[in-house]
Amino acid sequence: MIELIEAYDLLMDDDLFQYTRQSGTSRVATACELFSLKELCDHPNYDVFGIRVIFENEEDSDSSLDEEEDDASQVGDGEQNFESSNSLQFSASIPILMLKCHSDDSVSDVKRLCQERFGKVWGLQDRLTDRENLAVGWEMMTQFGIIMSYHLFLKSYDVSSYEIVYAVIEKTD
User: Are the CB atoms for 135 and 25 separated by under 8 Å?
Assistant: First the structure.
């Protein structure tokens, strides 16, 4: 399906499609809609990282989470099993990264935090940026495979503390 969309974009040869082709913004979103999270994990054009969101408690500013760990390999890899019967039912070897944030953060806020903390490891530093000054070519998804819209909040998706959301990142040449 992605090949059809890219062929259509190529045939149209339109400036709007040209920007999209160069930035990769629609390819990742389209891939997230077309493929399951497991298929994205197995796809050679995408990297998938689990982000365990840990909500800050305003009353307790101390945290055992080390904010200085930048390297994905330092945070840990491993088998991720989903316990909920409503969640995706598969196991995949996905790096699980920890991220401290707030339940009132927007998806853009979380993407910005991820980009600041993991962007270099993910290869986001040299990419084009969008109007939110975020690198293009990656999306965030819930454990249910729903693309998270930048203007909504984590609580809009019923994300709770210690829950895992996913970053789907298009690999670049």
Answer: no
Burial (CB count within 10 angstroms: exposed 0-12, middle 13-18, buried 19+), residue 58 = exposed
Over the stretch 39-95, which tens digit does the pLDDT of each residue have?
999 999 999 999 999 998 744 544 445 444 444 444 444 434 333 333 344 445 789
Q: Would you tell me how many other CB atoms lie within 10 Å of the CB of residue 158?
A: 9
Amino acid 67 reads E
With CA atoms as reference, report the closest residue to 169 among 126, 124, 120. Answer: 124
pTM: 0.71
Structure tokens at 7: 């062929």
